[in-house]
Write a structure and sequence with these properties.
By secondary structure, the protein is of the alpha/beta class. Helices cover about 25% and strands about 15% of the residues. The strands form 4 sheets. The protein has a 7-stranded mixed β-sheet. Strands 10-11-12-13 form a 4-stranded antiparallel β-sheet, with helices on one face. It has a two-stranded parallel ribbon with strand order 3-9. Belongs to the sulfatase family.
């Protein structure tokens, strides 16, 4: 009987065009290993994070629910106790689940607490707190947090990096458990700041890269919170918006080499495994005049790599424009292992799509949703409270910036998102259709921030009269098997309807 092995590899802050094969401008990003993965599998060109911030993005990826459902509205917040991770779901079914690398879901600081959470193999657990605790001195800890450590003098060896040590553990796991069914996550912090890598990896990037027209557009036409963000970017960068980031791209090239080692290990010890590669979110790098990630839905921040290799099941070297989301990963994993889909999940399995010979022809599927709530709960960086909700449907993207101005882009004709069509009369029908879908999604998923203000936008003339009750529905959370069922407020009896009037 064939073994069922699933390997999920992910990075942090890697947008899709930071892979050479996925860079439409033809820039050489020096990513030979990920380029080869593209050549051997299926790349989704329209894949999206659920929220472009580290913790919430991972919460969506590993629970199959949106951040507004699982409680992780920003960094430094823990998952809701009712939100099960894929590790918990698999381990309860007797499937060995191991997580090696950055976690960022325990509600603590950036590095984590070093404690293996329920559902994962304690022997292989290795978050960033574990890495720091292993370093021999306080000086080495400080060196591990500064790019200068890698750029000055002789730099560092790969053995000093978190990425190398995560890879070492992943190779050990695949060797020791090659005859078992398992689910393995290899979660790198790189290419996230501080961008550590051996010195040679930075050399190709001492010139402008990631060059896009939207780095030099008329920023005065952007929503107010983006303009404020741009002012901060100018203060930090000194006005340099050319996207040249030696540290980020050098680290990006280095972690490609580590991913290559994991892929080789899989070819040796897990030849039949389904391998999925992705990243939590992207990095603006000066596009639209901003830096990093946060309350914006632009492609540089939300469009992430999503590449799948599955020997003899997926055609080699193909790509698809069909929009997909991290919200679909947990359902896909459960489907892969032949396990049922809990009603509480908010995505859908992609397993049938992966092996569909017509996948390259699909340009539109169901809509994809992205949100933003807060960057981090314990500080006011990135504008403080800036709620945003976004829908991508085919070539169209609608973004509702609750506190400022909304945006509508035709991604097919305006890939750099420089021409906001929100008030264009010729786009009224598609804009309103997408707006209705977005409002329905907020209601269906019990978005805790939903309310009439998402509905009453200045350009939505037919929705200016709104009610206090908004959708008017009370929605209990879908209960998992074994959980205590809720009683209805008006009846005192067990709830039979998920969506109901009060």
């Amino acid at each position: 009987m064939a073994k069922k092995q699933f390997i999920l590899i992910m990075t942090d802050s890697q947008r899709r065009d930071m892979i050479s094969r996925c860079n439409e401008r033809g820039e050489n990003m020096h990513t030979p290993c990920l380029d080869r993965l593209c050549d051997e599998g299926l790349a989704f060109n329209s894949a999206y994070t659920t929220q472009p911030v580290c913790g919430p993005a991972r919460a969506g990826l590993f629970t199959g629910t949106y951040p507004h459902t699982n409680g992780m509205l920003g960094n430094c917040m823990a998952l809701s106790q009712q939100s099960l991770t894929i590790g918990q779901r698999l381990s309860r079914e007797g499937i060995h689940a191991a997580y090696i690398g950055k976690w960022h879901l325990d509600g603590g600081d950036y590095f984590g607490d070093g404690i293996c959470p329920d559902g994962w193999d304690e022997e292989y657990w290795y978050d960033m707190r574990n890495y720091l605790d292993e370093l021999e001195s306080d000086k080495d800890r400080e060196r591990s947090r500064k790019l200068e450590t890698a750029l000055e003098g002789d730099g560092i060896g790969e053995e000093f990096t978190y990425g190398y040590l995560c890879t070492k553990r992943a190779l050990d796991f695949m060797e020791k458990h090659k005859d078992e069914d398992y689910f393995l996550v290899v979660s790198y912090d790189e290419p996230h700041h501080p961008f550590l890598a051996p010195k040679s990896y930075y050399e190709p990037f001492y010139k402008p890269y990631l060059q896009k027209a939207n780095q030099h557009m008329d920023f005065s036409k952007l929503p107010d919170h983006i303009k404020v963000w741009h002012e901060k970017y100018m203060e930090i960068q000194g006005g340099n918006g050319d996207g040249c980031a030696v540290g980020l791209l050098g680290s990006n090239s280095f972690i490609d080499s580590q991913i290559g080692r994991v892929l080789e290990g899989a070819e040796k010890n897990a030849e039949e495994a389904l391998v999925l590669y992705t990243s939590d979110h992207g990095d603006a790098q000066g596009s639209h005049g901003i830096h990093a990630k946060g309350p914006a839905m632009y492609e540089e921040i939300t469009n992430i790599p999503f590449i799948v290799r599955w020997k003899d099941k997926i055609d080699r070297g193909i790509s698809s424009e069909m929009p997909v989301s991290h919200i679909d990963v947990v359902p896909t994993i459960l489907d892969f292992y032949g396990l049922p889909q809990p009603e509480s999940l908010e995505g859908e399995s992609l397993l049938a799509d992966l092996t569909d010979r017509d996948i390259t022809k699909k340009k539109e599927g169901r809509p994809v949703f992205v949100e933003f709530n807060r960057y981090e709960v314990d500080h006011d960086g990135w504008g403080g409270f800036q709620p945003v909700r976004c829908i991508v449907k085919g070539k169209w993207k609608l973004t509702i910036n609750l506190m400022t101005q909304d945006e509508l882009y035709n991604l097919e004709e305006d890939a750099d998102e420089m021409h906001n069509l929100i008030d264009d009369p010729s786009c009224e029908a598609i804009r309103n259709e997408m707006h209705d879908l977005l409002l329905n999604w907020q209601n269906d998923t019990r978005d805790p921030l939903r309310g009439y203000y998402w509905e009453k936008r200045p350009w939505r003339k037919d929705r200016q009269k709104v009610s206090w009750d908004c959708g008017g529905y009370s929605r209990s959370r879908h209960r998992e098997e074994g959980e205590v069922m809720e009683y209805g407020y008006g009846t005192g009896l067990p709830i039979k309807e998920y969506n109901r009037k009060y």
